[in-house]
Amino acid sequence: MHYLITGGAGFIGSHLVDFLLAGGNDVTVIDDLSTGSIENIKHHLKNPRFHLFIENVLNRNVVEYVTRSADFIFHLAAAVGVRTVLEKPLQSIEINIQGSRNVFEAASRYKKPVLFTSTSEIYGKNENVPFNEEDDIVLGPPSRKRWGYACSKALDEFLALAYAETNGLRVIIVRLFNTVGPRQTERYGMVLPRFIKQALSNQPITIFGDGSQTRCFTHVRNVVNTFSRLLDSPEAFGEIINVGSQQEISILRLAELVKQFTKSNSQIVFVKPETLYKDGFEDMNRRVPDVSKLKKLTGFSPCCSIEEIIKESVEYCLSSK
Ligand SMILES: NC(=O)c1ccc[n+]([C@@H]2O[C@H](COP(=O)([O-])OP(=O)(O)OC[C@H]3O[C@@H](n4cnc5c(N)ncnc54)[C@H](O)[C@@H]3O)[C@@H](O)[C@H]2O)c1
Question: Is pTM, for the whole model, over 0.85?
């Protein structure tokens, strides 16, 4: 099989590249290296089954060109995370909406199936955990830029389903909850690599808020493996599916574990979110997926504990220093 991965030089995308090439497939990546890195894929650059286009998914001609020769498309390229959207609101919305539209349009035209990565962010301020795929989306006002990420991904979901209905696009939409592991960078504010970096340099470990907010973390290998199981499941097409672990941990406990595993002298400090985010910040207290659909389709179960994930992520950080 020949797979196209948009965003394949990123954190999750590069693990997907490893997985698919190891399975004897051909892989083409299109990535503009905006948040991804050549470091993540450099071990494949001489592999004749690996093809890299350093390009923007906003370039419709290139997207069309790479789509034609692919059998399946993983669409991961996006302006990722709340911080990116806060810093570059216009560019982020354009990439997430027009970029996805280019991919869905080309995939429809050439009849190529797609797996699209959406986000748990789109449950927004909904407090009824665990979140089911049919639950309401509860977003804050557009004057708070942070909701631009969730809103653009929600619109992508509408777009994907509209292409499915109108043009027969075969699409799987996955809503990823916090995905972590080696190669995730701290540069865009992701919590686990940020804590690890702070701890390893004996800087204060900074928690926004009081640390009682909880999240569920899933190992990136688990996520990539789940993608491949979904492709083998014909009932997954046309569906929106939560992907994530249900093991909940508070951000304070996460910071304590990071401190413990890095044997760091860092202090854990609490920062008012408003000091970082000028237009007022809204955070969610809990974010837990209902994974009954995922389990039914793939038999999903978490591959490892949060302690194992932290340990591996710390080891990665130490080895790549
Ligand atoms: N990591 C998580 O916890 C998480 C959670 C929910 C959803 N997601 C989604 O998963 C996908 C991958 O996220 P990630 O964590 O690997 O982030 P990442 O930033 O490492 O990966 C995104 C990749 O897309 C590339 N990219 C961005 N804009 C592009 C453009 N216009 N053209 C071409 N390439 C472009 C980046 O350079 C990067 O390599 C994203 O769609 C993200 O929204 C991730």
Answer: yes
